[in-house]
Design brief:
Layout (H helix, E strand, L loop, with lengths): L1 H18 L1 E5 L2 E7 L4 E11 L2 E10 L9 E3 L5 E10 L3 H41 L11 H51 L2 E10 L3 E11 L2 E10 L8 E10 L9 E4 L44 E8 L9 E4 L5 E3 L5 E5 L5 E5 L6 E4 L7 E3 L3 H4 L10 H23 L1
Parallel strand pairs: 1-4, 2-11, 12-18
Antiparallel strand pairs: 2-3, 3-8, 4-7, 5-8, 6-7, 9-10, 12-15, 13-14, 13-16, 16-17
Helix pairs in contact: 2-3
Length: 417
Amino acid sequence: MKTYTLLLLFFSSSLFAINTIENKTESTISQVTVYLTGAEIKRNASVDVKSGINEIILYDLSPNIDENSIQISGLKNTSVLSINFTMDYLLEKQYSEASESLKIKLKKALLSKNEIVNEISGLSQEQKIFDSNQTIGYDKELSLESIQKISTYYRKRSIAIKNEIYLLTQKQHIISQEIDNIQHEINKIDDFVKTERGEIRLKIDAQVAANLLLKIRYNVTQAGWFPMYDIKTESIETPLNISYKANVYQKTGTDWKNVNIILSTGDPDTNNSKPEVNTKYLYFSNKQNITNNVIKRSIYKFNPTVKKVNGMVVDQYGNPLPGVSIIEKGTTNGTVTDFDGLYFLDIKGGKELEFSFAGLKNKTTPIYATQINETLMQDDSELEEVVIIGYGTKKNVKKSRVKAEEIKQKEDYNTVV
């Protein structure tokens, strides 16, 4: 009886696993909202689900998706069991087949190019033989007719060799271009295979078979925009025409062609995390207990097009600061200001610059322009830690005491007298 019960449980669990239907579904981007940093993607997908447990896989997505921002609607009366975001590495087989086909084509093209190179080499050797045997020896008696025949042969054959070399050179050039194109396609496929692709796995329980029109929303990084201003005028007497433009960038790994794009100055991370409300205290009499907890936010945003930065660093009085250390945050790339407080730095992929100088407060700012000037303020916390120490010797102390006693004795003597 116990054995029968175990078999029954195993059989039922197997049926549960078989009923899970895996459905790999394509999705298309309908709208992109680009923020100053980050973007929100909206996708649409149509999927047919069957009665029971269905696992819907939305594949070929950006690997930079914020898992906590994923929202899916259009599920009708189905029950959501789980939503997971994973990385997909299964595209390698599909693209490796295309890569192998191109590699075979590349071998054939290299073989043809090698045959042409060998043929050109043979013709060049033949031309050298003709050039070295143009002199006719005087020890042989040749008629004028024989000399004319030999000269005609040399001339015709030399022209034929040069023409063949020219045609073969043209063929070699065409095949070389074909080889470059094939190698470029192979490199593109290999790079794509190495790139991670995102997947959203949605597991639902459907009571009946139905067609679902899913609407998917999520946030991605590696995207954003920054403003640009185009100022024009026809003359000094006419008003200025100011055009407000936007430079949009994205490195999400997914094309945004023919997509409705909206630009926003908002922050996609706002209201996405649970707020924390801490206890606040009011101090009316003791001002020393009042602390400044103001969060300072930079008004500038990272500009990914900046490749070089220069500027000047001054103190709170406007004096240039030489020797200020400037580091591209997250890298080892950096420089120091010169005697006039000027600096120049090539950007190596970082997003922020960190300025530091002994006795002054460190400052971090986004790389927002090609010229960034900074002012470093005095660090009051370091001044509170200054300790003055005096040094002396016992010998000097004894001498000073003896001398003071002698003076006192003289004064007492004069007073008595």
